[in-house]
Fold these 4 entries.
Entry 1:
Amino acid sequence: MKTDTKVLVHCKRVIGLFLILFFASCKDNKGSAFDEKVVEKIAQESTEYPSEFSSIPFFGKCSNNQIGLVYLQDLRAIHTLKYKQLNFLEFLNKSLNQEITIDYLDKIKCFDLDKSVTLLYESNDFYTFLNLYTVKTKSNRTALKKEIKTNQIETVIYYLFVNNYLTSYDDYIGKYYVDKTSLFYKKSD
C-alpha cells in the first residue's frame, strides 16, 4: 500500500513538472517590441528626401488609454515640439513601443480599439488573427480583406503593427497591403 502511494505521488510530481514546463515554453507571439532595425533605419534616414515610411501609419500611446495613429512626418514634429530631450532614435523606440504618450495638438489621431476586433485578437494566436483579416493577392502580397468594417480597420492595423507588420494603403485601387517589418530592411541588405 505504501509503495502505491509513493508511485502515485511520484506520478503527480512528474505530471506537475511536465505541465509547468509545457506552459512555460508556450509563447503567445503577440505584441513583441517594435522591430529595432526598422527604428534604426528610420532614425538614420535623411530628412532631405521623402521617406519610404512616409505613407505608413505608425501607432503610439495617447492619454486616456487610447491608441494614436501617426505618420512619420508628424512623429518628427512631435519629437521636435515635445521630446527634444531625447535623441530621435530614443524617441522612436519609446513612442513606437508605447512607453510615452505621443498625443500632441493636431499631429495624431487618437482612437479607442474596437471591442470585437480586440476580442478576436485576444482569443486567438496571432497567425489565426492575421488569417481572419488578411488574404493573399494574385501577386502573392498580403492585403486586408475588403469586407472589414471601416470602424474596425484602424484596430486591425494596430494589432498588426504591434506584431511587427506595417500597412500601406494603395489609394489607386483602394487596398491595404500588409508587410512584415523585416521586408523594409531586407530590401537594402
Entry 2:
Amino acid sequence: MRRKRVGFIAACIICSVVAVLHAQDSDVDLVDQVSIEDLDSLFSGAVDTVVEPEDHTEVGEAVSKSLEGIVSFPLKFSGSFTGQLGAAYWPTDDSHSGYMNFENHLYFNARPVTELTLSADLRTTYYNRFGFELYQIYYDYIMFSHMFLSGGKKSLSWGEPHLYSSSGNILNDSVYCANIGATFPFGPISFKGVALTPIHEIDAEDTSTKDTDQQTTEDTTGSKISYAGAVEFVWHSMSLTAYYRRWPTNWQYKPSGAVYHYDQAFGAQAKQSIFDHIDVYAQGFVYTYPEKYRIDKEYTDFQQTQVIAGMYGVWDTPKFGFSLEYMYYRNYDEKFYKGVDVGHEHKVAYSVGLGNLVDGHLALVCTGNHNFTLDQGCVTPGFVIKRVFPSADLQSGVQVQYNGYDRSKEGEVATCVALKLVFSIDY
C-alpha cells in the first residue's frame, strides 16, 4: 500500500512537471466562429458523450516488461489521424486555391491502480505550418468512491453550447494552463472546483519581452492563479447549473491581437431533455473587469454580457440530426464599425443533416450562420460520400456568403465551391 501511495504521488508530480515543461505555444482564439469546414461534423458532435480512444494494440505488455523496475504498470497506446486534401473555386472573382492539412493524436493511457488513471495526448498538426505539442497530460483519481480529483494540462469544458462552444465554455483556455480540479457529487447535486495558471509567461500582462529569470519578486505564481467553481442540480431530465470564475488582475487574453482583461464571471445554465431525442438549453454570463482597464466610464463595471440559447437532436432511424443556437453578445469595449455598434450583436448558427442514405454511403448536410446586427452571414449546403477510398470520405459543398461576410462585398453575394478528401483512421 505504501508503494502504491508513493507511486501515485510520483505520477502526479510527473504529470504536473511535464505539463509545464513541454507544452508548446498555441494561439488562443476566443473569438467565436462557426466551423463549416467539416461537413460531416453534425453527427460526430451532436451527442453529449465522451468517446474514449479505442485500443488496438498489445504493445503495452511489451513496454511494461522492457521498463520493469522503472514503471510497474502497462502503458496502452492508441491514436487517431485526420487528413484533408482539397480545392476551392470562387466563381465570383474567378480565383481558386488548393490546400492540405492533417492532425494526428497519439494517446497514452495507464491505470496502475483502480483509483488512478494517467493520460496524455501528443498532437502533431499541419495547418500551413507544422505543429508539435504535448497537448494534454493529466491524472484522474477517485477518492473514497465519490470524490474525483484531476490535475495536469487538460482541456476542460463547462457549458452546453455546441456551435458557439468557445463563448459557451467558461474554461475555454484550460488546455493552455496547468490546472487542478475536484468534483464532489452528493445525490442530485454536484460541486466542482478548479484552479488554473497559464503555462507560458506571454499569457500574463507585460511579460512578453521578459525572461522568467528576470521577473521581480512581486510577480509570483500565486498572483496568476484563476479560480472557477460550479454547482449542478440534476432532476430527472432537467439540469440547472451555476458558474463562477475569478481572474487575477495581471491575466489577459490576446485573441486576434486584441487584449481582454477579466476580473470575474457569473453565469447560469438550464437544460431540459424532451421527447427522448431533443435537448433544449439556455445559458447566460456576465463578465466584469478591473476599474483600471475600464474605457467607457458611462457604463457599469460590466465588460461583457452574453446569452446563448439553443437546441439539438439526433435520431438513429432515420439518421437525422440538427443543431440550432442563438447568441446575444454585448462587449462594452468594442467600437463602431461602419456606423454599426458591433459590440452589441444578435446572431444565429444552425446545422442539419440526414445520413445513412444509399445503403449508408451518402449523407446530406447544411450549415450556416447569420449576424442580425450586421445583416450578413453564409449558408453551406453539401454532401458526404462515405468510403470512396479505404478510410477516406469525399466531401463537397457550395458556400454562399452575403453582404460583406468574409470575401463577399457589402450588398453583394460571393460563392465558393469546395471539394475535398477526408482521411480518418483510428489506431
Entry 3:
Amino acid sequence: MTPYTKAIFSEPVLLREKLAIYLQTPKKVELYASAAEFFFSMGNKEKLAKVPTWSWYGLFVAPALFMYRRDYVNMLISVFIVVFPCYMFAAASWESITIFGIIFMNFIYLIPIFYAMAAKYIIISKFEKILRLEDDEILKNKGGVNEFALLVGAILGIPLLFLGSGWGFVLIAAIVNGRGG
C-alpha cells in the first residue's frame, strides 16, 4: 500500500467516499467499507490481509459477480475453473467415469466455497490497486457495474441454486450433449 491508500483506508469517511465513486452502487458502500476496514485492520494497518469473509453471490454466481463488478479477469478465471472441468466431466461418456472422476467433481465443490470466502477481498484489493493512481476519474471509470451481469447471474443462478455449483453445469452440459436423459 502507498501512503495515499493507507490514509484513505485509515479515514472511514474518506474510504466510503472513494468506495462510492468506485462501486457506483450506494447500497453496497457500507458492506464493502466494512470489509475493507476489516482487511486493513487485520493487516495491521499496513496492508490488506487475505482473510476470509462470506459472499453468497461469490458462492452461487461468482462469474456473474465479477462481471457485475467489471472484474473480467476474475470472471474468466472463475468460469474456467468451475465451468470447464464440469463440462469436460459431463462430456465424458458416463461409462468411463471412474472413482477419480467422482472425487474430482466433489473437489470442484470447494472452488465456489473459495470464491464465497474471497470475493470481497478480490473486489477490495482491485479497488486498492486502482486507488494507488490517485485519480478519482480513473477510479470511477474502472469501477462501476455491468448491468448485463444481472441477467447472466439469474440465468446461471437458477441451475446453481437448484443443483449445486458444479453439478448444475454438469446437467446443462449433459443436456447440450444429448446425455440428459
Entry 4:
Amino acid sequence: MKLELIIGILGALGGITILFTAWQRIMDLLFPVRTATKQIINTLAHEFIDDGDDISEERIAIIVGGRCNQYRILSSDKIKSILKKAIYEFEQRKIVGLPQAIINLYDKIIDGLQKMKMDIDVVIVEDTTIQAYLIKFCDQLEDDKSYELRNIKAGFEKFLSNNGKIAKGTAQQAHILAAIANNRNRFHYNAINPKEDELFREGGKRSLLLYYPDENNHKIVKKFSRNIKEDITIYWFEKAKDGEERPSIKLSELNGLQPSVIFPDISTKQKGDRGDATPKTIWEFLSKFCSQLEDDKPYELRNIMTSFAEFLVVNGRSAKESAQKAHILAAIANNRNRFHYNAINPKEDGLFIESGKRTLLLYYPDENNHKIVKKFGLNINDDPTIYWYEEGGNRPSIKLSELKKEIFNN
C-alpha cells in the first residue's frame, strides 16, 4: 500500500514537472522580451563572474544581440528596456563593473543590433554542439581563399549569435584552433586521428575544417579539403603507454590516392571539350577512370570511391553515392558479392570479346582483404577467382588462368 502511494506521488510530481515545463515554454513564446532578458542577465552574470572583468565590450554586444535576434526583438525601445532591467539586476546583485560596461555600450548596442546581420545565412543545425555550428560555418567559406584568423573568430561568433547559439569565447576559440589541421597545438585539444575524420572515413566525425597555408604564419587560414594544393602536415593526439604522443602525417600520405595523379588529362579538360568518346553511363565513366590507374599498384578502396566521385563531378556527371559504390563493387572481379549486382559472365566482358561491356576493372590482390584493390587486366601477376551471376540463383566462378585458356585456346 505504501509503495503504491509513493509511486502515485512520484507520478503526480512528474506530471506537475511536465506541465510546468510546458507552461514555461508557452510563456516564453508569449513574452519573448521577458525570456530574452532573463537569459541575457544569466549569461552575462555567469561569464562576468567566470572571467572577472575580462569580458569584452564586443562579447557583451554579441550576447545581447544573439538573444534579441533569437527572439526577433528588433525594436529599439524593447532593447533599451532589456538593457535597463539588466543594469538594475546587476546593481542589485552588486556585480561591480558590469552595469557600467553595459551603460558604456548602451548606444553602441542599440545601433549595432540593427547592423548585426551576418553575410552568411542563418542555418538549421540538428546537432546543436559548437562543432556542428563550426562545420556549417566553415562549409560556407570559399575554397582556396585566404582569411584572417581573427576575422574567422569574429565571424563565427556572429554566426552563432545569428543562430541563437551562445558559447563562451574560450570554447569558440578552442574549437577553431582544434579544427586547423596543421596546428601543432591540436595535441592540446585531443584532436582525433585524421583517419577517423569524415573526409577519410564514412560515418566519421568532421574535425578537419581549416589549415594554415603557411605553417609559420598563424594569422592566415584557408578552408581545408582533401584536394587543397598544399601538402600540409596534419597533427593530432594519441595516448601512448609511456605518455602522450603528438603524431603527424602528410596530407599526400593520408590521401594515398590523389585525384590529380589518377586523371590529369580529364581534370584539366576545358568545359565543353568533350569529343565523341565522352563516356555517358556510369559504367563507361568507371571504365575510363580505371584505365588511368597504374598497373600492379595497390590502392585503398575507400580512396578509389572518393576519387571516382570527384572524377564524375569534374566531368559534369552526377550519380547517387549508392550507385557509384554499387558499380565499383561490381567491377571487382573477385568480389564474391558480384552475384548481388547481376555481374555478367566474364566471357562477355570487353576484355574477351570485341564491343563487349567492360565490367572487370579491379580486383583484390588478397581476397581476404577488401580494403586494397589493384587494376584488373589479362596480364596481372595474380590469378584471382572471378565471380558472376547466372539465372536460377547460381554463383559460378572461374580462375583467371582457366578463363584465359578456355577462351584463347579454343
